[in-house]
Amino acid sequence: MAIQISYINQEVWKYIDKIEASSKTNPPILVVRCATFNQEKYIGTTLEGFVTQKTKFPFIVIVHDDASTDNTPNIIKEYSEKYPHLIFPIFEVENLYSKGQGDVSKILTEACNRTGAKYIALCEGDDYWIDPLKLQKQVDFLEKHVDYSLVATNTDNLNGTSIIPSKWNVTKDGERSIKEVILNGGLFLSTASLVFRADIYRQMPETAKTLHVGDYPLQIFMASKGRVWQLADTTCVYRVQSDGSWTQNNKTNMYNYDFIRHRITKETYLLETMDKVTEGKYTSLFRQRKNLYIYNSLFLFNGWKCFNAFFKNPYLILQHNSLKHILLSFLPQRIKRKYLGR
After folding, report:
1. CA-CA distance, 67 to 327, in Å (whole number)?
2. CA gap 185, 220 in Å, rounded
3. Please, are residues 228 and 202 in contact by the beta-carbon 8 Å criterion?
4. Of 62, 157, 161, 224, which one has the fewest beta carbons inside 10 Å?
5. What is the DSSP letter of 235?
6. First to last CA, the chain
7. Signed CA dihedral, 283, 102, 61, 41: sign only
8. Three-state DSSP class for residue 268
């Protein structure tokens, strides 16, 4: 343990030291980052997606449990004991996410750096992989194409028991531009589908790694430093509105104006931060994204602000919303709610 870092306690250092020691004995080519909290209903499926991967290269999985109060830690322990050279847990005794300082991301980054892995894959504790060749396909692509920083895949969205292909899925492999990445937001490329170069990720400033969401800034940064490819293979499933998820939180608070206003403030800060990180090269795109975000967020509340946002970027908003939706946005809230049945 070379350096002491304030947000990493002694117990967590023990987990990181174990990861580092194992990586020196059997250096992984890729490391999987998995953060989880109170996801006992899902984490077993997530871990199964990891252990069933078939690769020609060594990889490891780091699972960070943020002091879950349900059975999540026990499930992780079972898998780490069954697959001791593959699943490496980090268990917190105190919930870090509630402190709002980005410490979970920092700890996972520190642990991943200690592995020396060339590539990083992501999968949250409620999503899962369905293609056993997922990692092999993505690493094969990155090994052959050194100018690409990130490779994503198609994704299925699971809402309750209904599985629907993501609207961003492609019918054939192809390149995705930084314009698409910025304007379409964090759900454009599914987090569970991503594999990217660790050396480029290490260049990403800490201010960009500790924003209120991690996947969207990551995609923007990687797209600003290299090219982005999407495979037409569907390799993973993203759970929509699962317990405690970002999507569920948004749905629960969809009529909470203070929540929406605070969300807009955080998203604005994210876009402004990433504009600085990318040295102002995409300022126009960030402004367009902000207008689209404001329009979508205020749809149920403020017709005038929706109207204003629409006329700043009519073509972009029309691309993301139907004409019926746009006309509805200008009407009083009671009419919108009646139309939507809420």
Report:
1. 46
2. 9
3. no
4. 161
5. E
6. 55
7. negative
8. helix
Report which DSSP code applies to 193.
Answer: G
> Cα–Cα distance between 86 and 244 in angstroms, integer?
27
pTM above 0.85, yes or no: yes
- Tell me 192's DSSP state: G
Q: Are strands 119-122 and 30-36 parallel, antiparallel or unpaired?
A: parallel
| Cα distance between residue 125 and residue 148, in whole Å | 27
Distance between CA atoms of residues 107 and 88, nearest Å: 13
**Burial category of 97 from C-beta neighbours within 10 Å (exposed 0-12, middle 13-18, buried 19 and up):** middle
Dist CA 92 CA 64 (whole Å): 8
Block means of pLDDT (10 residues each) for the chain, 342 residues, are: 65 95 97 97 97 98 97 98 98 87 87 97 97 98 98 95 94 98 95 98 93 94 98 96 53 65 92 97 96 81 68 78 69 64 54
Neighbouring-strand partners of residue 174: 230
Residue 200 is encoded by which pair of tokens? 């480029």
Cα 335 to Cα 341: distance, rounded to the nearest angstrom: 10
- How does DSSP assign 77-108, residue by residue? HHHHHHSTTTEEEEE-SS-SGGGTS-HHHHHH
Between strands 87-91 and 119-122, the pairing is unpaired
Cβ neighbors of 158 (< 8 A, separation 6 or more) are 237, 238, 239, 240
Note the residue count of the chain: 342
HSE at residue 42, side-chain half, CA atoms within 13 A, is 24
